[in-house]
Amino acid sequence: MNSKNNEKDPIRSWSNPPLDEEGKGEARIVGDLMQNKGVVRIFHSDLDRSKETAKIIAQKIKAPTTSVFGLRPWNLGVYIGRPLDKNLDKIIYYETHRKLVVPKGESYAAFLKRFGTVLEDAKRFVIEHPTSPIALVTHSQNLVVLRNRLSHDRFPVEPTMKVKVVEVIKVNFPTKSTYEIQIIASGHKGEGHAR
């Protein structure tokens, strides 16, 4: 979803801008798409733009929401608020050297571990309650990681990957070791870097 303060494509990461009108409209569209899907709970990051997105969707589908710190994007520390295009090489360096900690942020390895734990918990819940789907409202960098985990590292995770801003992905786990993924809806006025 979109939030204000994106004039010069700044790195958002853990910054906390509110959801703008375009983002609210996108959340309403996602809520419409998710109606009658039986979602029993929506989990979202504790950042305001994610909370607000989840709240809008929850009003449409009548599901409770839960804030989860682990759904935050990668903490890019000193790079937050800086232009992405001028700092992308530095971010890729930290991503490639996964154990190096971004100054005033976290290492890419720490982000992967934090978010991976949430994904494993979500997967376990869905396997144990196959008739109780859940929704995760997260950030575009996390979506790249989710796709990577589901494809078993068949493509690299890079902040340069182009990600649709609005995507509704349905993931089923017919068994503990298999999954099925289906993109229900996807759209954006244009593609951009994962932030």
Give the CATH H-level superfamily.
Phosphoglycerate mutase-like
Major β-sheet profile: 3 strands, parallel
Broad shape: globular
What is the arithmetic mean of pLDDT?
78
Query: How many domains, in number, for the residues?
Result: 1
Description:
With 195 residues, the protein is α/β, with parallel strands linked by helices. It has a single domain, classed as Rossmann fold, CATH 3.40.50. The chain is built from five helices and seven strands; from the N terminus they run H-E-H-E-H-H-E-H-E-E-E-E. The protein has helices spanning 21-34, 48-61, 84-96, 108-128, 140-150, and strands spanning 41-44, 65-67, 134-137, 162-163, 166-175, 178-187, 192-193. It has a three-stranded parallel β-sheet with strand order 2-1-3, covered by helices on one side. A two-stranded antiparallel ribbon has the order 4-7. A two-stranded antiparallel ribbon has the order 5-6. Strand 1 (41-44), helix 2 (48-61) and strand 2 (65-67) form a beta-alpha-beta unit. Helix 1 (21-34) packs parallel to helix 2 (48-61) and helix 4 (108-128) packs across helix 5. It is globular, with a radius of gyration of 16 Å. The model is unreliable at 1-7, 153-166 and 187-195 (pLDDT under 50).
